[in-house]
Amino acid sequence: MRTGWLAVFTVAVVFAGCVNPLPAAHEAPDLTTSWRALLGPATDRVVVQVHYTPEHVPYPAALTTLADELGRATGKPVTVQTPIPMPSTGIANHTVADLLAVHARTFTLGAPLLSGDAASHTAWLHVLYLDGARAAGASQSGETIGLHIGSLPAIYYFPKVQHLNVVLPPASWDLLAANDEPVERAILVHEAGHALGLVDCGVPMVRAHDDAQHSCHSASDGSVMTALVGGLQGVLELLQDNQWVPYKFDADDLADLQAAQASFQGGA
Ligand SMILES: [Zn+2]
What we know:
Collagenase (Catalytic Domain), globular, 268 residues, 11 strands, seven-stranded mixed β-sheet
């Protein structure tokens, strides 16, 4: 990407016919990771684009919660665009390649797979509500409800994964059905937390609060970044034990984000 920025600047200088020196590579804002785009000084606003398959219309309140938490996390104004319907992918169990492809195919805000646009000072996040499920793999079970991949500005929500891969007792069905919206808002904020690089996965920790058993997740059950949020069994455990699923970043998460913003401001 650094090469890409140099190419852009080179073209701009040639067209302008000016003699300004090329900026050093380190001066080009790095928007190639979702957390640098969302938190760094090159952007001053966040735009969220939402695509959903027909059976999974987003809860407006869940998207409002996502915007509120992104605003708290970044200190920047957040706009959620009107959700856009998309056809079913027709895939029962999505591989990472499938998920990258649907993001690239549907995202209209900027270059797919990138995180922001320094020229418009905008960082973006793409939210995809998919039918089907995440393919079960070596490190993933078929009960994944939410997913963020690498450092991409895309998060995935599989609202009805319990219909596909998981056998549940009747009481669990009832519990999930009664908590559709609270689960949705928690998954959206949790995956956005991964896009923000939380819990030492892009953004370093000010105070240790990582879960030794689950990298990139918080040891605090009060944080939306607990590993229990993201998988069906974990969400059920929270609902059964606490009658509640955390959906906010906690003080440790926010301290990490503020420290990261200070370091990005300093050009680190
Ligand atoms: Zn997670």
